[in-house]
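User: Can you predict the 3D structure for this chain?
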Amino acid sequence: MESILEIVIPTYNREDYLRECISSIKLQNIEPGCSLSFTVVDNGTNSNTIKNLVTTNSGRYIRNHANFGANMSVIRCFAIANAHYVHIIGDDDLILP
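Assistant: Here is the predicted structure, written as structure tokens:
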């Protein structure tokens, strides 16, 4: 099933914040027949900890080959999203149920 809403999160070396953000996404109640997915755009973190966190939580992981800066990462978030609706949030943001 194609996602109706995709939450896209740009990040760089902030695993602890991202962990809380992903947890808040997973707590959302979704209407029957609707679907929610999340993608993390990693702006060149030097380790695999972010990738492991995302894939362990059934998210999609995209890594920039270099640190493009915050603005370019947000632009890339829109470019890679493939749901009908896209919501971009910071890695230090939480979504309330």
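Helices lie at 15-26, 49-56, 70-80. The longest helix spans residues 15-26.
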